[in-house]
Amino acid sequence: MKRLVSFFSALLVILVLTGCGSAGKNFPVAHVAEIKNGVTTQSQILDWFGVAFKEGLRNGNPMWTYQFDMWHSIGSEHSKELVVLFDQNNIVRAYRYASNMD
Fold first, then answer.
1. With the CA atoms of 71, 47, 43 and 64 taken in that order, what torsion angle do they form, in degrees rounded to the nearest 10?
2. pLDDT at residue 79 above 90?
3. pLDDT at position 5, please?
4. 45 versus 5: which is more confidently predicted?
5. Which fold does the domain 20-99 belong to in CATH?
6. Confidence label for 54 from pLDDT (cuts 50, 70 and 90)
7. Based on CB atoms within 10 Å of each CB, which residue in 14, 37, 56, 66 is the most buried?
């Protein structure tokens, strides 16, 4: 019995140490540099990045968030996020992109 407990304890430790996870939805970043405030349309954003992970409103204007986070129980966390705010005409009003993924 003691041997069985030791085995499952060791197995549990291994599973915890090798655990990993992710949240959000991975998205391509090749077109981020092409986004232009006052020029880029909502349709272009949809074509380039797909359906947003989150959609909401800010001061009555549509805001789309693309987010992907990945972590391991041992090691570093990686994340990237693109937030796009549109005006009433579905043109990019402002955007922010941040990432620690290379």
1. 0
2. yes
3. 72
4. 45
5. Beta-lactamase Inhibitory Protein; Chain:B, domain 1 (3.30.1450)
6. very high
7. 66
